[in-house]
Design goal:
The complex is a heterodimer of chains A (212) and B (275).
Chain A: E1 2-11, E2 14-24, E3 29-34, H1 40-47, E4 55-60, H2 69-73, E5 76-79, H3 90-101, H4 105-114, H5 132-145, E6 150-154, H6 162-175, E7 180-184, H7 188-191, E8 197-202, E9 205-211
Parallel strand pairs in A: 3-7, 3-8, 5-6, 6-7
Antiparallel strand pairs in A: 1-2, 1-4, 8-9
Helix pairs in contact in A: 4-5
Chain B: H1 2-17, H2 19-37, E1 44-45, E2 48-49, H3 50-74, H4 76-83, H5 86-90, H6 97-129, H7 136-163, H8 167-195, H9 200-208, H10 211-221, H11 233-240, H12 243-271
Antiparallel strand pairs in B: 1-2
Helix pairs in contact in B: 1-6, 2-3, 2-6, 3-6, 3-7, 3-8, 3-10, 4-7, 6-7, 6-12, 7-10, 7-12, 8-9, 10-12
Classes of the chains: A alpha/beta (212), B mainly alpha (275).
Protein backbone atom coordinates (compact mmCIF):
# COMPACT_ATOMS: atom_id res chain seq x y z
CA UNK A 1 0.00 0.00 0.00
CA UNK A 2 2.76 2.45 0.96
CA UNK A 3 6.20 2.16 -0.61
CA UNK A 4 8.96 4.48 0.61
CA UNK A 5 12.12 4.32 -1.50
CA UNK A 6 15.42 5.99 -0.59
CA UNK A 7 13.48 8.94 0.87
CA UNK A 8 15.67 11.86 1.90
CA UNK A 9 14.42 15.13 3.38
CA UNK A 10 16.55 18.03 4.56
CA UNK A 11 15.55 21.19 6.40
CA UNK A 12 18.41 23.60 5.80
CA UNK A 13 21.50 21.66 6.82
CA UNK A 14 19.55 19.28 9.06
CA UNK A 15 18.98 15.84 7.58
CA UNK A 16 15.56 14.76 8.81
CA UNK A 17 15.17 11.62 6.68
CA UNK A 18 18.31 9.85 5.49
CA UNK A 19 17.57 7.58 2.54
CA UNK A 20 14.71 5.77 4.25
CA UNK A 21 13.22 2.72 2.51
CA UNK A 22 10.32 0.66 3.82
CA UNK A 23 6.97 -0.82 2.80
CA UNK A 24 3.71 -0.81 4.70
CA UNK A 25 1.08 -3.31 3.62
CA UNK A 26 -2.58 -4.18 4.07
CA UNK A 27 -3.53 -5.86 7.37
CA UNK A 28 -0.48 -4.44 9.07
CA UNK A 29 -0.74 -2.48 12.27
CA UNK A 30 2.50 -0.65 12.82
CA UNK A 31 3.96 1.23 15.77
CA UNK A 32 6.38 3.85 14.47
CA UNK A 33 8.67 4.73 17.32
CA UNK A 34 11.78 6.74 18.08
CA UNK A 35 13.15 9.64 20.07
CA UNK A 36 12.20 13.25 19.35
CA UNK A 37 13.75 14.36 16.09
CA UNK A 38 14.10 10.79 14.81
CA UNK A 39 12.13 11.65 11.67
CA UNK A 40 8.77 10.01 12.44
CA UNK A 41 6.63 13.07 11.78
CA UNK A 42 8.65 13.96 8.68
CA UNK A 43 7.98 10.45 7.33
CA UNK A 44 4.24 10.74 8.06
CA UNK A 45 4.07 14.17 6.45
CA UNK A 46 5.93 12.87 3.41
CA UNK A 47 3.37 10.05 3.11
CA UNK A 48 0.60 12.68 3.26
CA UNK A 49 2.32 14.63 0.47
CA UNK A 50 3.17 17.71 2.56
CA UNK A 51 6.89 17.64 1.92
CA UNK A 52 8.79 17.73 -1.35
CA UNK A 53 11.58 15.18 -0.87
CA UNK A 54 15.22 15.99 -1.57
CA UNK A 55 15.68 12.44 -2.83
CA UNK A 56 13.76 9.21 -3.31
CA UNK A 57 10.00 8.91 -3.44
CA UNK A 58 6.82 7.81 -1.70
CA UNK A 59 4.15 5.87 -3.55
CA UNK A 60 0.70 5.15 -2.14
CA UNK A 61 -0.96 2.36 -4.10
CA UNK A 62 1.42 3.34 -6.91
CA UNK A 63 0.49 7.03 -6.78
CA UNK A 64 2.65 10.01 -5.86
CA UNK A 65 0.99 11.82 -2.91
CA UNK A 66 2.12 15.26 -4.15
CA UNK A 67 1.08 14.93 -7.78
CA UNK A 68 -2.05 12.86 -7.11
CA UNK A 69 -2.96 14.25 -3.70
CA UNK A 70 -6.74 14.11 -4.18
CA UNK A 71 -6.75 10.44 -5.23
CA UNK A 72 -4.25 9.47 -2.54
CA UNK A 73 -5.94 11.31 0.33
CA UNK A 74 -9.31 9.72 -0.43
CA UNK A 75 -7.84 6.57 1.10
CA UNK A 76 -6.05 8.08 4.10
CA UNK A 77 -7.39 9.09 7.51
CA UNK A 78 -5.09 11.16 9.68
CA UNK A 79 -5.26 12.32 13.29
CA UNK A 80 -2.48 14.68 14.41
CA UNK A 81 -0.81 14.61 17.80
CA UNK A 82 -2.32 17.92 18.93
CA UNK A 83 -5.77 18.86 17.65
CA UNK A 84 -5.35 22.15 15.75
CA UNK A 85 -7.33 25.24 16.82
CA UNK A 86 -9.85 25.02 13.97
CA UNK A 87 -12.33 27.88 14.26
CA UNK A 88 -15.12 26.11 12.39
CA UNK A 89 -18.09 24.86 14.41
CA UNK A 90 -18.53 21.10 14.72
CA UNK A 91 -21.37 21.30 12.20
CA UNK A 92 -19.15 23.18 9.73
CA UNK A 93 -16.26 20.80 10.30
CA UNK A 94 -18.55 17.84 9.54
CA UNK A 95 -19.80 19.68 6.46
CA UNK A 96 -16.18 20.17 5.34
CA UNK A 97 -15.36 16.51 5.86
CA UNK A 98 -18.53 15.14 4.31
CA UNK A 99 -18.32 17.35 1.21
CA UNK A 100 -14.59 17.05 0.57
CA UNK A 101 -14.16 13.35 1.39
CA UNK A 102 -17.68 12.07 0.82
CA UNK A 103 -18.06 10.97 4.43
CA UNK A 104 -21.49 10.17 5.83
CA UNK A 105 -22.32 12.67 8.60
CA UNK A 106 -24.42 10.06 10.36
CA UNK A 107 -21.38 7.83 10.59
CA UNK A 108 -19.37 10.62 12.24
CA UNK A 109 -22.21 11.05 14.74
CA UNK A 110 -22.25 7.28 15.29
CA UNK A 111 -18.53 7.04 16.07
CA UNK A 112 -18.65 10.21 18.18
CA UNK A 113 -21.42 8.61 20.16
CA UNK A 114 -19.32 5.46 20.57
CA UNK A 115 -16.50 7.67 21.85
CA UNK A 116 -18.98 9.23 24.36
CA UNK A 117 -18.79 12.60 22.64
CA UNK A 118 -22.07 14.50 22.62
CA UNK A 119 -22.03 16.33 19.29
CA UNK A 120 -25.70 17.30 19.21
CA UNK A 121 -25.41 19.79 22.08
CA UNK A 122 -22.11 21.18 20.76
CA UNK A 123 -23.03 21.41 17.09
CA UNK A 124 -22.65 25.18 16.83
CA UNK A 125 -19.68 25.40 19.16
CA UNK A 126 -16.28 26.21 17.64
CA UNK A 127 -14.03 23.17 17.50
CA UNK A 128 -11.18 25.02 19.26
CA UNK A 129 -13.41 25.79 22.24
CA UNK A 130 -13.85 22.09 23.04
CA UNK A 131 -11.64 20.45 25.67
CA UNK A 132 -8.50 18.63 24.50
CA UNK A 133 -10.14 15.23 24.98
CA UNK A 134 -13.32 16.21 23.14
CA UNK A 135 -11.31 17.52 20.19
CA UNK A 136 -9.35 14.29 20.01
CA UNK A 137 -12.54 12.24 20.15
CA UNK A 138 -14.04 14.27 17.32
CA UNK A 139 -10.98 13.77 15.12
CA UNK A 140 -10.97 10.04 15.88
CA UNK A 141 -14.67 9.81 15.02
CA UNK A 142 -14.00 11.54 11.69
CA UNK A 143 -11.02 9.27 10.97
CA UNK A 144 -13.12 6.15 11.51
CA UNK A 145 -16.15 7.47 9.60
CA UNK A 146 -13.98 8.19 6.58
CA UNK A 147 -13.57 4.42 6.04
CA UNK A 148 -10.05 4.81 4.64
CA UNK A 149 -7.74 1.93 3.78
CA UNK A 150 -4.86 3.69 5.51
CA UNK A 151 -5.26 5.20 8.98
CA UNK A 152 -2.45 7.27 10.47
CA UNK A 153 -2.50 8.28 14.12
CA UNK A 154 0.15 10.53 15.64
CA UNK A 155 0.02 9.93 19.42
CA UNK A 156 -3.79 9.57 19.25
CA UNK A 157 -4.39 8.89 22.93
CA UNK A 158 -2.37 11.80 24.34
CA UNK A 159 -5.48 13.70 25.47
CA UNK A 160 -7.76 10.78 26.23
CA UNK A 161 -8.83 9.50 29.64
CA UNK A 162 -8.60 5.70 30.33
CA UNK A 163 -12.26 5.08 29.44
CA UNK A 164 -11.92 6.96 26.14
CA UNK A 165 -8.73 5.03 25.34
CA UNK A 166 -10.59 1.76 25.84
CA UNK A 167 -13.40 2.98 23.56
CA UNK A 168 -10.83 3.99 20.97
CA UNK A 169 -9.03 0.63 21.00
CA UNK A 170 -12.35 -1.24 20.84
CA UNK A 171 -13.47 0.76 17.79
CA UNK A 172 -10.10 0.26 16.11
CA UNK A 173 -10.31 -3.51 16.66
CA UNK A 174 -13.71 -3.50 14.96
CA UNK A 175 -12.38 -1.50 12.01
CA UNK A 176 -8.89 -2.88 11.38
CA UNK A 177 -9.70 -5.57 8.79
CA UNK A 178 -8.14 -5.08 5.38
CA UNK A 179 -6.58 -1.83 6.53
CA UNK A 180 -3.16 -0.43 7.27
CA UNK A 181 -2.87 1.21 10.68
CA UNK A 182 0.15 3.37 11.41
CA UNK A 183 0.67 4.68 14.95
CA UNK A 184 3.32 7.20 15.80
CA UNK A 185 3.93 6.65 19.48
CA UNK A 186 6.43 6.87 22.31
CA UNK A 187 4.64 4.26 24.42
CA UNK A 188 4.51 0.82 22.85
CA UNK A 189 2.56 -0.62 25.80
CA UNK A 190 -0.42 1.54 24.86
CA UNK A 191 -0.79 0.05 21.40
CA UNK A 192 0.88 -3.33 21.79
CA UNK A 193 -2.51 -5.06 21.79
CA UNK A 194 -3.17 -3.62 18.37
CA UNK A 195 0.13 -3.68 16.51
CA UNK A 196 1.80 -6.55 14.68
CA UNK A 197 4.93 -4.71 13.57
CA UNK A 198 7.18 -2.15 15.18
CA UNK A 199 9.62 0.19 13.55
CA UNK A 200 12.23 2.24 15.38
CA UNK A 201 13.71 5.33 13.83
CA UNK A 202 16.74 7.30 14.91
CA UNK A 203 18.54 10.26 13.32
CA UNK A 204 16.42 10.00 10.17
CA UNK A 205 16.99 6.28 9.58
CA UNK A 206 15.03 3.10 10.24
CA UNK A 207 17.18 1.30 12.80
CA UNK A 208 14.92 -1.64 13.53
CA UNK A 209 11.89 -3.16 11.84
CA UNK A 210 10.36 -6.30 13.29
CA UNK A 211 7.11 -8.25 13.29
CA UNK A 212 5.53 -8.93 16.65
CA UNK B 1 -15.78 23.05 -8.18
CA UNK B 2 -17.79 21.99 -5.12
CA UNK B 3 -14.62 22.01 -3.00
CA UNK B 4 -13.73 25.52 -4.21
CA UNK B 5 -17.15 26.79 -3.08
CA UNK B 6 -16.86 24.79 0.12
CA UNK B 7 -13.59 26.46 1.10
CA UNK B 8 -14.90 29.91 0.09
CA UNK B 9 -18.13 29.38 2.01
CA UNK B 10 -16.42 28.15 5.18
CA UNK B 11 -13.79 30.91 5.08
CA UNK B 12 -16.55 33.46 4.66
CA UNK B 13 -18.50 32.06 7.62
CA UNK B 14 -15.37 31.91 9.76
CA UNK B 15 -14.39 35.48 8.87
CA UNK B 16 -17.85 36.89 9.54
CA UNK B 17 -17.72 35.44 13.06
CA UNK B 18 -14.26 36.89 13.72
CA UNK B 19 -13.84 40.03 15.83
CA UNK B 20 -11.76 41.75 13.17
CA UNK B 21 -14.70 41.57 10.78
CA UNK B 22 -16.97 43.29 13.31
CA UNK B 23 -14.41 46.07 13.82
CA UNK B 24 -13.83 46.29 10.06
CA UNK B 25 -17.56 46.65 9.30
CA UNK B 26 -18.08 49.11 12.15
CA UNK B 27 -15.23 51.32 10.93
CA UNK B 28 -16.62 51.70 7.42
CA UNK B 29 -20.28 51.82 8.46
CA UNK B 30 -19.34 54.20 11.28
CA UNK B 31 -17.53 56.51 8.88
CA UNK B 32 -20.66 56.99 6.80
CA UNK B 33 -22.78 57.53 9.92
CA UNK B 34 -20.24 60.04 11.22
CA UNK B 35 -20.29 61.98 7.95
CA UNK B 36 -24.05 62.31 8.05
CA UNK B 37 -24.02 63.31 11.73
CA UNK B 38 -21.25 65.84 11.08
CA UNK B 39 -23.30 67.32 8.23
CA UNK B 40 -20.73 66.66 5.54
CA UNK B 41 -23.50 66.57 2.92
CA UNK B 42 -24.39 70.16 3.79
CA UNK B 43 -20.86 71.47 3.40
CA UNK B 44 -19.14 72.65 0.27
CA UNK B 45 -15.41 72.32 -0.26
CA UNK B 46 -13.60 72.97 -3.55
CA UNK B 47 -16.95 72.88 -5.30
CA UNK B 48 -17.93 69.42 -4.00
CA UNK B 49 -21.17 69.22 -2.03
CA UNK B 50 -23.95 66.83 -1.03
CA UNK B 51 -23.46 63.10 -1.50
CA UNK B 52 -20.55 63.69 -3.87
CA UNK B 53 -18.69 65.44 -1.07
CA UNK B 54 -19.53 62.63 1.32
CA UNK B 55 -18.37 59.92 -1.10
CA UNK B 56 -15.17 61.83 -1.81
CA UNK B 57 -14.35 62.02 1.90
CA UNK B 58 -15.22 58.35 2.30
CA UNK B 59 -12.93 57.30 -0.52
CA UNK B 60 -10.08 59.50 0.75
CA UNK B 61 -10.19 57.82 4.15
CA UNK B 62 -10.75 54.39 2.60
CA UNK B 63 -7.57 54.62 0.57
CA UNK B 64 -5.58 54.89 3.79
CA UNK B 65 -7.30 52.27 5.94
CA UNK B 66 -8.61 49.69 3.45
CA UNK B 67 -5.18 48.42 2.31
CA UNK B 68 -3.85 48.00 5.84
CA UNK B 69 -7.06 46.30 7.00
CA UNK B 70 -6.89 43.86 4.09
CA UNK B 71 -3.17 43.23 4.51
CA UNK B 72 -3.31 42.66 8.27
CA UNK B 73 -6.39 40.44 8.26
CA UNK B 74 -5.43 38.41 5.20
CA UNK B 75 -1.68 38.07 5.40
CA UNK B 76 -2.03 35.49 8.17
CA UNK B 77 -4.62 33.51 6.25
CA UNK B 78 -2.34 30.72 5.05
CA UNK B 79 0.77 31.44 7.14
CA UNK B 80 -1.41 31.48 10.30
CA UNK B 81 -3.03 28.17 9.39
CA UNK B 82 0.42 26.75 8.74
CA UNK B 83 1.72 28.16 12.03
CA UNK B 84 -0.91 26.55 14.23
CA UNK B 85 -1.15 23.25 12.32
CA UNK B 86 -4.65 23.87 10.95
CA UNK B 87 -3.27 23.45 7.42
CA UNK B 88 -1.76 20.08 8.37
CA UNK B 89 -5.17 18.73 9.34
CA UNK B 90 -7.41 20.44 6.78
CA UNK B 91 -5.19 19.41 3.88
CA UNK B 92 -5.26 15.77 4.96
CA UNK B 93 -8.63 15.62 3.16
CA UNK B 94 -8.85 15.13 -0.61
CA UNK B 95 -8.94 18.78 -1.64
CA UNK B 96 -6.63 20.03 -4.37
CA UNK B 97 -4.25 22.84 -3.48
CA UNK B 98 -5.78 24.89 -6.27
CA UNK B 99 -9.27 24.61 -4.76
CA UNK B 100 -7.99 25.35 -1.27
CA UNK B 101 -5.98 28.43 -2.24
CA UNK B 102 -8.46 30.06 -4.64
CA UNK B 103 -11.38 29.12 -2.41
CA UNK B 104 -9.71 31.01 0.43
CA UNK B 105 -9.16 34.02 -1.84
CA UNK B 106 -12.79 34.10 -3.00
CA UNK B 107 -14.11 33.79 0.56
CA UNK B 108 -11.76 36.48 1.84
CA UNK B 109 -12.53 38.81 -1.08
CA UNK B 110 -16.24 38.74 -0.33
CA UNK B 111 -15.49 39.40 3.33
CA UNK B 112 -13.32 42.45 2.73
CA UNK B 113 -15.24 43.94 -0.19
CA UNK B 114 -18.85 43.73 0.96
CA UNK B 115 -18.58 45.98 4.06
CA UNK B 116 -16.93 48.84 2.12
CA UNK B 117 -19.45 48.43 -0.70
CA UNK B 118 -22.45 48.28 1.61
CA UNK B 119 -21.26 51.37 3.49
CA UNK B 120 -21.53 53.25 0.18
CA UNK B 121 -24.94 51.72 -0.56
CA UNK B 122 -26.16 52.84 2.87
CA UNK B 123 -24.85 56.35 2.20
CA UNK B 124 -26.63 56.54 -1.16
CA UNK B 125 -29.88 55.08 0.27
CA UNK B 126 -29.87 57.43 3.24
CA UNK B 127 -29.03 60.38 0.98
CA UNK B 128 -31.91 59.47 -1.33
CA UNK B 129 -34.31 59.37 1.63
CA UNK B 130 -33.07 62.83 2.64
CA UNK B 131 -33.79 64.01 -0.91
CA UNK B 132 -30.20 64.51 -2.03
CA UNK B 133 -29.26 64.09 -5.70
CA UNK B 134 -27.51 60.78 -6.20
CA UNK B 135 -24.21 60.98 -8.09
CA UNK B 136 -24.51 57.62 -9.86
CA UNK B 137 -21.42 58.04 -12.01
CA UNK B 138 -19.31 58.59 -8.91
CA UNK B 139 -21.00 55.71 -7.10
CA UNK B 140 -20.21 53.28 -9.94
CA UNK B 141 -16.67 54.59 -10.32
CA UNK B 142 -16.01 54.08 -6.61
CA UNK B 143 -17.58 50.62 -6.68
CA UNK B 144 -15.12 49.67 -9.42
CA UNK B 145 -12.18 51.37 -7.75
CA UNK B 146 -12.83 49.71 -4.40
CA UNK B 147 -13.18 46.36 -6.17
CA UNK B 148 -9.83 46.90 -7.89
CA UNK B 149 -8.05 48.16 -4.76
CA UNK B 150 -9.39 45.27 -2.67
CA UNK B 151 -8.21 42.81 -5.36
CA UNK B 152 -4.75 44.37 -5.50
CA UNK B 153 -4.10 44.17 -1.76
CA UNK B 154 -5.78 40.81 -1.35
CA UNK B 155 -3.48 39.38 -4.04
CA UNK B 156 -0.43 40.96 -2.39
CA UNK B 157 -1.51 39.64 1.02
CA UNK B 158 -1.98 36.07 -0.25
CA UNK B 159 1.37 36.30 -2.03
CA UNK B 160 3.09 37.20 1.27
CA UNK B 161 1.09 34.55 3.11
CA UNK B 162 2.21 31.82 0.74
CA UNK B 163 5.92 32.05 1.50
CA UNK B 164 6.20 33.49 5.00
CA UNK B 165 6.59 30.87 7.72
CA UNK B 166 5.49 32.86 10.75
CA UNK B 167 2.56 35.23 11.28
CA UNK B 168 4.74 37.88 12.95
CA UNK B 169 7.00 38.21 9.92
CA UNK B 170 3.94 38.28 7.64
CA UNK B 171 2.49 41.18 9.65
CA UNK B 172 5.79 43.06 9.54
CA UNK B 173 6.04 42.73 5.75
CA UNK B 174 2.39 43.76 5.35
CA UNK B 175 2.91 46.90 7.41
CA UNK B 176 6.06 47.79 5.48
CA UNK B 177 4.29 47.43 2.10
CA UNK B 178 1.42 49.59 3.26
CA UNK B 179 3.59 52.43 4.55
CA UNK B 180 5.88 52.13 1.52
CA UNK B 181 3.04 52.52 -0.97
CA UNK B 182 1.23 55.12 1.09
CA UNK B 183 4.06 57.49 1.85
CA UNK B 184 7.62 56.44 1.12
CA UNK B 185 7.26 56.30 -2.66
CA UNK B 186 5.78 59.81 -2.73
CA UNK B 187 8.45 61.21 -0.43
CA UNK B 188 11.24 59.54 -2.40
CA UNK B 189 9.83 60.71 -5.74
CA UNK B 190 9.26 64.26 -4.53
CA UNK B 191 12.86 64.47 -3.37
CA UNK B 192 14.09 63.03 -6.68
CA UNK B 193 11.98 65.55 -8.55
CA UNK B 194 13.23 68.44 -6.43
CA UNK B 195 16.80 67.41 -7.03
CA UNK B 196 15.93 67.02 -10.72
CA UNK B 197 17.90 63.79 -10.96
CA UNK B 198 15.35 62.13 -13.24
CA UNK B 199 13.09 63.61 -15.83
CA UNK B 200 9.58 64.41 -14.64
CA UNK B 201 7.86 61.87 -16.88
CA UNK B 202 9.85 59.01 -15.38
CA UNK B 203 9.06 60.20 -11.85
CA UNK B 204 5.36 60.44 -12.70
CA UNK B 205 5.43 57.01 -14.30
CA UNK B 206 6.96 55.58 -11.11
CA UNK B 207 4.23 57.30 -9.11
CA UNK B 208 1.47 55.91 -11.29
CA UNK B 209 2.56 52.27 -11.08
CA UNK B 210 1.68 52.46 -7.40
CA UNK B 211 -1.92 51.12 -7.18
CA UNK B 212 -2.70 53.45 -4.28
CA UNK B 213 -1.61 56.47 -6.29
CA UNK B 214 -3.64 55.53 -9.35
CA UNK B 215 -6.64 54.94 -7.08
CA UNK B 216 -6.15 58.37 -5.49
CA UNK B 217 -6.02 60.18 -8.84
CA UNK B 218 -8.93 58.24 -10.34
CA UNK B 219 -11.09 58.90 -7.29
CA UNK B 220 -10.92 62.62 -7.98
CA UNK B 221 -10.96 62.57 -11.76
CA UNK B 222 -14.75 62.46 -12.07
CA UNK B 223 -15.20 65.39 -9.74
CA UNK B 224 -12.54 67.40 -11.38
CA UNK B 225 -11.95 66.30 -14.97
CA UNK B 226 -9.08 68.75 -15.33
CA UNK B 227 -7.44 67.13 -12.31
CA UNK B 228 -6.39 70.54 -11.06
CA UNK B 229 -6.60 69.47 -7.42
CA UNK B 230 -3.85 66.94 -8.14
CA UNK B 231 -1.44 69.61 -9.29
CA UNK B 232 0.99 69.12 -12.17
CA UNK B 233 0.26 65.37 -12.38
CA UNK B 234 -2.97 66.27 -14.17
CA UNK B 235 -1.22 67.79 -17.15
CA UNK B 236 0.90 64.72 -17.75
CA UNK B 237 -1.99 62.30 -17.41
CA UNK B 238 -4.35 64.30 -19.59
CA UNK B 239 -1.59 64.76 -22.14
CA UNK B 240 -1.07 61.03 -22.46
CA UNK B 241 -4.60 59.60 -22.25
CA UNK B 242 -8.28 60.52 -22.16
CA UNK B 243 -10.20 60.55 -18.89
CA UNK B 244 -12.21 57.46 -19.93
CA UNK B 245 -9.11 55.41 -20.63
CA UNK B 246 -7.52 56.59 -17.42
CA UNK B 247 -10.56 55.52 -15.37
CA UNK B 248 -10.53 52.14 -17.11
CA UNK B 249 -6.81 51.78 -16.41
CA UNK B 250 -7.34 52.67 -12.76
CA UNK B 251 -9.69 49.70 -12.37
CA UNK B 252 -7.98 47.18 -14.67
CA UNK B 253 -4.41 47.84 -13.49
CA UNK B 254 -4.82 47.25 -9.71
CA UNK B 255 -7.09 44.27 -10.44
CA UNK B 256 -4.39 42.77 -12.68
CA UNK B 257 -1.76 43.38 -10.00
CA UNK B 258 -3.93 41.51 -7.53
CA UNK B 259 -4.40 38.60 -9.93
CA UNK B 260 -0.69 38.41 -10.77
CA UNK B 261 0.38 38.42 -7.11
CA UNK B 262 -2.32 35.89 -6.18
CA UNK B 263 -1.16 33.63 -9.00
CA UNK B 264 2.50 33.94 -7.96
CA UNK B 265 1.41 33.14 -4.39
CA UNK B 266 -0.35 30.03 -5.63
CA UNK B 267 2.73 28.86 -7.52
CA UNK B 268 4.82 29.25 -4.35
CA UNK B 269 2.15 27.52 -2.25
CA UNK B 270 2.13 24.62 -4.71
CA UNK B 271 5.91 24.23 -4.95
CA UNK B 272 6.86 24.68 -1.31
CA UNK B 273 6.49 22.26 1.60
CA UNK B 274 2.94 22.67 2.88
CA UNK B 275 3.68 22.56 6.59
Amino acid sequence: MIKVSQLTKKFGSHLSLDSVSCEFNKNESIALMGANGAGKTTLIRSILGYYHPDGGEVLINGLNPIKERVKVLKNISFVPQLPPPIKLSLDELMHYVSTSADVDKELILHYANEMKLDIASNLNKSFFKLSGGMKQKMLIAISLAKKSDIIIYDEPTANLDPQARDDFYRLLKQNEDEKLLLFVTHRLEEVKELVNRQIYMDLGKVVSDEKI
Amino acid sequence: MKNLYLIAYLDLKESIRARWFLVYSLVFGGLIALFFIAGVTESQVMGFSGLSRLLLMYIQITIVILPIFILITTVRSISGDRDNHILEYMLSFPISLRQYYWGKIIGRFITVYLPVFFAMVIAVAYGAIKGAAIPWSIFFLYTGLLFALSSAFLGIAFFISSFVKSSEVALGIAFFIWIFLLAFIDIALISLMMQQRFNAQLVLFLAMINPMEIFRVAAISLFDPELTVMGPVAFYILDSMSQGIFVLLSVVYPFSIGLIFAFLGFKIFEKKDLV
